[in-house]
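User: Hi! I'm a student and our assignment asks us to look at how structure tokens line up with a sequence. Could you show me two examples?

Assistant: Happy to help. In each example below, the sequence comes first and the structure tokens follow. Example one:
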Amino acid sequence: MPGLFIGLMSGTSLDGIDAVVADATAVDGTPRLLHSHFQSFAPALRDELLALQAPCDNELHRAALAANQLSQAYAEAIHVLLAKAALAAKDITAIGCHGQTIRHQPQSGYTTQLGNGALLAELTGITVVNDFRSRDIAAGGQGAPLLPALHQRLFQAANEHRVIVNIGGIANLTNLPPASARAPVIGFDCGPGNALMDEWISQHRGEPFDRDGAWAAAGRVLPDIYKYLILNNYFLIPPPKSTGRDLFNLSWLRRALKGDEAPEDVQATLLDLTAQGIAQAICNYCTGAQAAYVCGGGAHNRSLMARLEALLPGVRIADTGALGLDADWVEALAFAWFAQQALQREPANLPEVTGAKGLRVLGAVYAK
């Protein structure tokens, strides 16, 4: 189905909404980024979305209201994006909306991404596709990560063994052996990405994130704390696997703390945990990797990128900009493509990645 698609992504970092317009008219259906817009969350909405990450009072009602507020914010972001691109709603075939994950429990058979697709369709006058993870979970999969299917299409090389590392709130990777090797593509969540670091600096310094990793660089890694964190069983489980704030959150972190640690030392330890989780995953499951290309907010953390370089000698570390796609927009572009796949009734999961019983068409459609 040729045309223009909008992709929306608001991830576990809870910083805001990434919105893109993608051109899907290429013969092979590979999307091309045309326009982009970022919109921060209003503080009250962010606080409520963060509170809903854990069990709380009256959470069903609160989640429904937050989903409506979030859909209003999505619609506002779309209107700004369309104005910037000099486009109208009639020019867009569909919106692919990831929604805001507040629970991810594939072991219990469900995942929950807030977002009212029906309301968003009403507010924009555009067909909406959302709830992309549930069908994969129903088929016995993890429902995540979903991006490897597009990573393969966009970034696999004929003769270079690449790993795509997405560092959002949670870190995940896609192993892309050279196409000439005809080896399967695998992908999985490595562990925490930015989420713990963002929450920690917000709590102690009132800042939304650690710019360039400068605060972490001012601290030192605490060996005992690091050992407690890295011994979490999640790091030992082989893929397919996925995780979220359900596991990696401040309550989990506090169980490792005595309370007298310098906050910047804890931040340094969290950065090292993220880097070590990624590096160990690459060493264990991406043997022979020549290059790791990073996307997501973590690509801007200079200290984190430098730590990955130190941990992965012989592996070239860069961001996906080196491959022609800005690191900030890869996820949103993916959900534009997922919407395209859904309307064409084409599968968008990789069973080798998620563990699903087979290829599945993903997403629920709310026609305009």
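Example two works the same way, sequence first and then tokens:
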Amino acid sequence: MSIQNEAVPHLQAEQIFAGLSDYQHALSSHMDWLRHCYSAILNWGEGHPHAADRGTCAFDVWFTGAKDSLLGGFVGFGRLGELHDEVHDTAERIIGRATTGQTITTSDYEAMMALVLAFGTAAQSLERDVWRTLATVDPLTGLGNRQTMMSQLIGERDRAIRLDQPCCVGLADIDHFKKINDTFGHAAGDRVLRAVADCLRGAVRPYDILYRYGGEEFLVCLPAATLEDGTQVLERMRAAVDQLKLQDAAGRAIAVTATFGLAMLNADHSVEESLERADNALYDGKRAGRNRVVLYRADGPTD
């Protein structure tokens, strides 16, 4: 992943899509500035039709405003800004030479072109990184999706084995979600999914990892957690969902609860087997009345 904080794949995909649109406009503005710059350099002796003032490049404004955005969190963002500054500094130096009557040499042009090419390459690389990251994110909730989940779970299991530490995996399923969709509509159902995702995100530990498992199901990986530790985290998540106060567009209250299943992620079982155990515990919780946390144990479920 190309985000600087790689441990947290929670992204607001809609914000990144909007940021990409602004990014494209900023790049287009920079290309306009470059055309004016080339014209100023090549035609300086003919009245220099444009002084290639940096103030005409809107990329500066965009870059400053994007530093604190999600796009600004990508590793390549800072390097792109550095190259942008170098392009402008080099252009100003060349035009400064022309202003004082000095000859613009071939090496001046080559230095400018090399920086422009490096800037273009960095811009393309940043955009590829953004799209690659978006491919691993569920666009509705901003959580990691199943495409990236399995490889990361295998990595967490391997690390737990290597460090001889416990690790748990939990599954959450929104109770009666079909009824929510049927009663309030799918738009309201989507709002419920986003609200539950935000709720779960706020209830986990900083190093826990959340995914949208599919439909109305979510998965959480709990590194360095025993079953007892995991139970506490999942119970906090369950209580947070239970306390949600949601309404549809007409102001009707939408009651939301979730049921959770928990299992160990260790050397005794594959990731798939651990997920199946967590799933079995979850459905034991459904059968027992929902809105509860159930642990998988070899001798039977425990809540």
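Here is something you could point out in your write-up. Strands lie at 167-174, 209-214, 217-223, 246-247, 253-254, 258-264, 293-295.
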